[in-house]
Amino acid sequence: MPLEFTRSEPLTFGVELELMVLNTHDYNLTRGAADLLPRLAKLKLPGEVKPEITESMIEINSPVNRRYDEMLAQLVTVRDAIVKHGDRLNLAVAGGGSHPFHRWHERRIYPTERFKRVSSLYGYLAKQFTVFGQHIHVGVENGDDAVYLTHRLAPYIPHFIALSASSPFYQGEDTSFETSRLHAISAFPLSGHMPDVGTWEEFNVFFDEMLDYGIVGSMKDFYWDIRPKPEYGTIEIRICDTPLTVERAAQLAAYAQTLVSWLLRERRTEPVAPLYRVYGYNRFQATRFGFLATVIDPYTRTQTRLREDIIGALERIAPAAEVLGTTEALRALERVAEDMANDSLWLRQQYQETRSLNDVVRLQSELWRA
Amino acid sequence: MNLSFLPSPPFELSYPLLFGALLVAGMLGGELARVARLPRILGYVLVGFLIGPLVQAAHLRPLIEEARIFVDLALGLVLFDLGRRLDVRWMRRDWTLPVTGLAESLLSFFAVFGVLVALDFRPVQAGLAAALAMTASPAVLLLVVHDTRAEGQVTERALNLVALNGLLASILTTIMLGSAHYEARMEMETAVLHPLYLFLGSLALGGTMALLARFIARTVEKDREVHFSLIAGLVVAAVGLASLLKLPVILALLAFGLFARNDQRGYDLLNVNLAPVGRLLYIVLFVITGASLPLGLLAESLGVALAIVGARAVGKAAGVFAVAPLGGLRVQQSGGLALALMPMSSLPLLMLHDIVRVFPQFGQALTAAFLSAVVLMEIAGPLAVQYGLRIAGESLPQLDATFVGIRPFKARA
After folding, report:
1. Which of B149, B328, B404 sits opposite A39 (nearest CB)?
2. Closest Cα of chain A to B330: distance in Å?
């Protein structure tokens, strides 16, 4: 039985944000999801707040939106509700791609069936997977567009990495990477990117084969950086660290929406294979060096500094931004690129000042409150 | 041949030997308890119960008394830790937390007071005993929390409530000590001044130590091990200072912890984990507590002891169930919270010593009954906490599902 691709309104978009739940005495992760979520469930919030794989993690799902400003307003509403109810329980909440000093073995798996299965399959990887990402969904009309966009967004993956990076610290150390979160993901056997298929039909052939091998049970078992999401009718960009503020999260979503709009108009036809020959290199460069990374364009065979690559792209898609109402968001991201001032830089600065990762997390949670 | 280099009787037990022996014996007891899936503390206390008669037979009683120094150090550490957990800001944000504390403290006070008066004890005595019975044991709670790696609302709330009822109890007993003085026909000045000195002096000592800690912390490197030595050193010194100044160790260290807590006043002090050094002292603490509890009294005063324990439990449970659900706690969580407050603190032992010293009329009968109640709860208490944290879903499950390997997907036929 082929996977049906649900049609959805093109360029509608939504985000999922994974957040850390912290205690307020040493700002370590703590099990609080089971107490926080029932309280939030009683409120009328835009979207949903859900459990994630460990009990010290919650996830915000925004509703489906057309406009950036509406999404931002919704995220602010949900954030404020989480902050208020967290306060009553003496729990703090924060963004950031990884917790700077938690020990993975102390984490507990949230007891739902799927999470129990994931944890029994992956063992310690499941607990080490206590990292926090932002997923961006953009609606597309059909499976073929989803396949096209999944490939064509690949060169922009380094952009999303550098702009969202917020996990320089991991297990108590400065990793020297802009984002350490992506390492936790690379350990999974089905991480990486979609294979070089051209249409939704070809994708279905590949998917059936994987199903027959018994390697996957559903689309959820692929941990790719970008993947089609047939049941929602979207493509899903999963590369971003959860930023430290909802404002940055909304800006990144706006960037994705605008890029998709631009790519759908451009209809690129260059061969796909070269994109993936440079993919791993570019991705690594961005995780390690951020805006100072060197990225390779496989078609022109030129090397560019990521900072300039991002600014160039933002300027290229500016007309599409005018139409969608995302100009303000893209300007904000352009300033981030120009100053090379992402959240990882902010976190490192806080550490410089306080010399204590506990204090860094405390400041991180204060920044999240806004 | 001159053999004077060999040791000859009478032999003297030294502190290192005593400490080491109690530590190893306690540890073994704890591990035995753990194998039986019981709280480790129970093992420590039972070893103490066994050691008690031995000590008596070997005429070593004074040495155990002198080992009070270890007990004071352990308690100092416990109370400092507890003070750091007392979160006034949280209490302002969630009114149900302090009100739960007030309710369970007052209800258990009046329940015990009522029962004792009904049993024909004099009101002043009954009042003192009831105030002592208000406290729950921070040491038992902290240790069980640590052993079961419990985390969550019930754990956090229980720690705050224990700090709160400890504070209330020490204020109340100090006041009652005043009236006891008065009844003992001391001059009015002593009756007022002594409690006042105990109370304000402790706060001042705690505050001064916290200031000192912050001052030193700012001048040294912000490093975990450096701050650990700093805090451990100051805690020990504060215990010594408190007894030098004839101040209650309990209140002084609680105040030190509270003032050293990181909040708006600054974040100079790292929140170091004192558990590694704490564990050693706690083991010895519980073994000594077990050894110094007069088990013989149990037979003669079991009735009154059960009455105290029962009234106290009813009062605490009623207080928790009356208020905690208003703060959104589920039934199992409220139950877990009530159970976590069950262990009786061995702090009353110390207070009792002090009280009996200045006020011998406290009464043989009541002292015996109270000590018997402590004996009972020394066994039932840790079990109650362990069970409570389990039904609240906060202790780490024994067998984590994580490493049970199963094949995830069946290939389709």
Report:
1. B328
2. 10
Q: What is the DSSP string of B390-411?
A: HHTT-SPPSS-GGG------PP
- Of residues A90, A127, A362, nearest to B90 (C-beta): A90
Instruction: Report d(CA B257, CA B255) in Å as an integer.
Output: 5
Q: Which residues of B touch A35 (CB under 8 A)?
A: 152-153, 328
CB contact under 8 A, B409 and A358: no
Interface of A with B (CB under 8 A): 23-26, 30-32, 34-35, 38-39, 87-90, 106, 108-109, 116-117, 119-121, 123-124, 126-127, 211-217, 221, 354-356, 358-359, 362
Nearest CA in chain B to A89: B153
Helix or strand (DSSP H, E) at B303: helix B297-323
Collect contacts of A85-89 with beta carbons under 8 A, ≥24 apart. Answer: A85/A36, A85/A39, A85/A40, A86/A21, A86/A32, A86/A36, A87/B93, A87/B94, A88/A39, A88/B93, A88/B94, A88/B327, A88/B328, A89/A32, A89/A35, A89/A36, A89/A39, A89/B94, A89/B153
Q: What is the largest CA-CA distance in chain A?
A: 58
| B19-399 under CATH 3.40.50.10610, yes or no | no
Nearest to A96 by CA among A325, A294, A291, A357: A357
The Cα–Cα gap between B64 and A148 comes to 80
- Out of B149, B153, B408, name the one closest to residue A117 (CB): B408
Q: Of A259, A261, A251, A240, which Cα lies nearest the Cα of A336?
A: A251
**What are the structural domain ranges in chain B?**
19-399
Chain A residues in contact with B334 (beta carbon < 8 A): none
Interface touch B405/A120, C-beta < 8 Å:
yes
Q: Which residues contact A125 (CB under 8 A, 6 or more apart)?
A: A184, A187, A188
Q: Hey, are the CB atoms on A32 and B271 less than 8 Å from each other?
A: no
pLDDT tens over chain B, length 413 residues: 788 888 877 766 677 777 788 889 999 999 999 999 899 999 999 998 898 888 777 766 666 666 777 777 888 888 888 888 888 889 999 999 999 999 999 999 999 999 999 998 888 888 888 988 998 988 899 899 988 889 999 999 999 999 999 888 888 877 777 676 666 666 767 777 877 888 899 999 999 999 999 899 888 887 888 888 898 899 999 999 998 998 888 889 989 998 887 665 567 777 777 777 778 888 888 888 888 777 877 888 889 999 999 999 999 999 999 999 998 899 999 999 999 999 987 666 666 666 666 666 666 777 888 888 988 898 999 999 999 999 998 988 754 433 333 333 433 33
Nearest CA among B360, B361, B363 for reference residue B371: B363
A211–B401: do the CB atoms touch at under 8 Å?
Answer: no
Q: What is the pTM of this model?
A: 0.87
Taking the C-alpha atoms of residue A140 and residue A228, their distance in angstroms, rounded to an integer, is 10
